[in-house]
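User: Please fill in residues for this 126-position structure.
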């Protein structure tokens, strides 16, 4: 059995909070300061298999942004097994990468989260 379309309906990356740098934003309108991109597996993942989702948070503004939280909602049949973080351009990973909460993201900085997940045994594509 194969779990297909694992990304459809299973992946949601959103900006939960954004402040600093002269103002705040919202999940639907981060005021052009922060971009969040998310990519899931490129093909089907078998029942009981391992997969990963890549979530990148970038500050595209000219000033630091505070309190940025990326959320990844995994659908039924997926269990998060870990989160790994790397940072670039002056940014730092949060102490608890699994929370995906960035206290301060400097101008031009980025944080990349790799979310590891397992497809439940017996899961069938719907």
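Assistant: Residues filled in for all 126 positions:
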């Amino acid at each position: 059995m194969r779990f297909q379309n694992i990304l459809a309906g299973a992946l949601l990356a959103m900006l939960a909070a954004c402040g600093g740098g002269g103002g705040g934003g919202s999940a639907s309108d981060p005021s052009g300061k922060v971009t969040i991109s998310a990519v899931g597996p490129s093909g089907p993942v078998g029942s009981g298999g391992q997969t990963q989702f890549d979530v990148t948070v970038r500050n595209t503004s000219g000033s630091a942004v505070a309190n940025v939280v990326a959320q990844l909602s995994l659908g039924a049949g997926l269990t998060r097994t870990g989160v790994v973080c790397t940072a670039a351009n002056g940014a730092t990973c949060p102490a608890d990468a699994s929370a995906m909460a960035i206290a301060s993201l400097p101008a031009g900085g980025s944080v990349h989260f790799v979310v590891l997940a397992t497809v439940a045994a017996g899961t069938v594509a719907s």
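For context: The radius of gyration is 16 Å.
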